[in-house]
Amino acid sequence: MQIMQLQLLLPTGISSFQKGVLFFRNISKISAMSQYHTLKIENPKEFVYSVQLNRPDKANAMNKTMWLEIGKCFNELNENTDCRVIVLSANGKYFTSGIDLFDIMNLGQEVANHDDIARKSKVLRCFIKTYQDCLTALEKCDKPVLTAIHNGCIGGGVDLVSAADIRYCTEDAWFQLKETEIGMAADVGTLQRMPKIIGSMSTFNELAFTARKFHSSEAKNIGFVTQVYDTKESMLENVMNIATDIASKSPVGVQMTKRSIIYSRDHTVQEGLDHIGDWNQILLQSEDFIKASMAVATKDKKPTFSKL
Q: For 183-198, what is each residue's pLDDT tens digit?
């Protein structure tokens, strides 16, 4: 099945020999990665990796295995020189129904094994910190992460996509910060990231306090998603084209741009200027700057950049 899918992803209009070379190259790349039980990893285009939530029979509920695999996958892709852009999507009816409540029940049993409040609290703190780090892996990954969201994106799913760089969704997509509805405060990133994404504390506070659903049109209006597509198929096609465009750019330029954006978000303007100044005194000496500048000057639309 995996082999058939890889064959279908090969570009058209090339010779059988070229298809064979690309096919075996893609096979070797995927085989070199760790094996995942709740994620599906593909390499559909050069330098573009597809990561798909893959528990469709469980509405992609985020169990412990999925949380840990998300962190591991994005850490691994961060070090993968064949990867320049990542597209995050999901298989099945829903993008994700959020955290798997069976895991919460198991956590409760683990906490109950201790009598002392300090010991109970340490178990919970370790649990929270681990899950925080798993999602922060998207943000710490130097490669841009584009998310393609369809249907329901609930609770932990909003935390997940808030850690990405760009969000797209289908017309039938809807979102919900569900935590207050189940008697808790969100603790893995939404409260920290989403207000800075949409730029309105008033709107965000309403969504967080009421736990009401907000649909694709509202998500677009408040700036949470960049574009809304009619179907999942059209969304994935367009997002993959955007990812391919980004992947064609200098990896030095793109990855440093992401670092600077995130650093500047959490620091003063002057600190952000100092940060990029310190980096660019080195990176402006990179071969990428020379190649890209020459390509613009000579109107060469496809400069080739070394792996990074």
A: 999 999 999 999 999 9
User: How far is it, in rounded angstroms, from Cα 93 to Cα 38?
Assistant: 15
Q: Which of 71, 92, 155, 156 is catalytic?
A: 156
For residue 114, the number of C-alpha atoms closer than 13 Å in the C-beta half-sphere is 13
Rg (CA), the chain: 21
Q: What is the DSSP letter of 11?
A: P
The catalytic position among 46, 187, 262, 272 is 187
Active site residue 142: no
pLDDT grade for 8, boundaries at 50, 70 and 90: very low
**Does the annotation count 103 as an active-site position?**
no
Nearest to 137 by CA among 63, 56, 199, 51: 51
Instruction: Out of 70, 179, 242, 288, pick the active-site residue.
Output: 179
Q: Strand locations in 178-287, DSSP E? A: 213-215, 227-229
**What pLDDT does residue 2 have?**
44
- Phi, psi at residue 214, to the nearest 5°? -130, 135
187 is catalytic: yes
Amino acid 69: pLDDT: 98
Alpha carbon 212 to its chain centroid, in Å, reads: 24
| DSSP β-ladder status, 48-53 and 39-45 | antiparallel
288 classed as catalytic: no
Q: Is the Cβ–Cβ distance between 83 and 49 less than 8 Å?
A: yes
User: In the predicted model, what is the mean pLDDT of the chain?
Assistant: 91
Angle at alpha carbon of residue 141, lines to 239 and 277, rounded to 5°: 105
Closest CA to 48 of 133, 137, 148: 148
Q: Is 69 a catalytic residue?
A: no
Backbone angles phi, psi at 89, to 5 degrees: -140, -165
Pair 49, 41: CB distance under 8 Å: yes
